[in-house]
Amino acid sequence: MVDFTLNMYSELLKVINYNDCTIRSYLINNHPIILRHDVDRSLNNALKMAKLEAKYNLSSTYYFRVHKTFDIYTINKIAKLGHEIGYHYECLDKAKGNVKKALNIFKKELSLFKKWGVKTICMHGNPLSRWDNRDMWKENKFKDFGVLGEAYLSIDFNKMPYFTDTGRSWNSNFAVKDRTGKGLQKINGTEDLINKIKLKKIKKAYILTHPCRWNDNYVMWLKELLWQNVKNIGKRLLK
Predict the structure, then answer these.
(1) Radius of gyration of the CA atoms of the chain, in A
(2) Are 59 and 22 in contact (CB under 8 A)?
(3) Contact 64, 39 (CB under 8 A)
(4) 162-164: strand order across its sheet
């Protein structure tokens, strides 16, 4: 089966043996599986993934950027399917490193998500930016804004193996900002991840996907492949 298709993602969902896979629930209940989606682009793909998960009675977390993907219609649809809505912040980038200004942006943008009861946040990792958005919490507390947790800072990655499709690859070679400090788990594609979960070689997993990378339409699939290969060359140079 071709990788990075919704058909392949459906196969992954079939081996997930826990229903509430949200970040919020993990912080409260410490369950074995986290399914997280960073909606950087392609609202349509995000909705398709959300519907697939609902089909298998799974709930996951979708983080939306204010700059690119804040679409009330789509967010409402995904929330009604039972998924957690989160805020994908990039405030330090927007404030060009000014922490005080970044906090003001954060407060304003977080308020846009009030109707969905947002309790968790996740930094957006722009590889071209000189700033890491997580740094705004070095001397400040996101809990002061009513936030329960941050998708990187609130997780103990010594206990939760982390897998990411960053760079349209599961082997971590192209992760510039999507890192945990512990090192990323390496697998040979989604099928390998599926098999290892099925055989219980992986019993706990924090799985990050970007909906824009998963397409059943061949033209869109090929377009994403070619564009990601170009970006990966740039990431190699940055690293």
Answers:
(1) 17
(2) yes
(3) yes
(4) 149-150, 120-123, 84-89, 61-64, 33-39, 205-209, 162-164
CA 239 to chain centre: 21
Q: What angle do CA 212, 214, 216 make, to 5 degrees?
A: 125
Three-state DSSP at 122 gives strand
- Mean pLDDT, residues 165-173 taken together: 76
Q: How far apart are the first and last CA of the chain?
A: 32
**Cβ pair 58, 37 in contact under 8 A:** no
3-state secondary structure of 144: helix
Angle formed at CA 2 by CA 207 and CA 168, multiple of 5 degrees = 45
pLDDT tier, 79 (very low <50, low <70, confident <90, very high otherwise): very high
DSSP letters, 60-79, are: -EEEE-TTT---HHHHHHHH
Q: Tell me which residue of 121, 124, 114 sits closest to 177, measured CA to CA.
A: 124
**Residue 49 near residue 83, CB atoms below 8 Å:** no
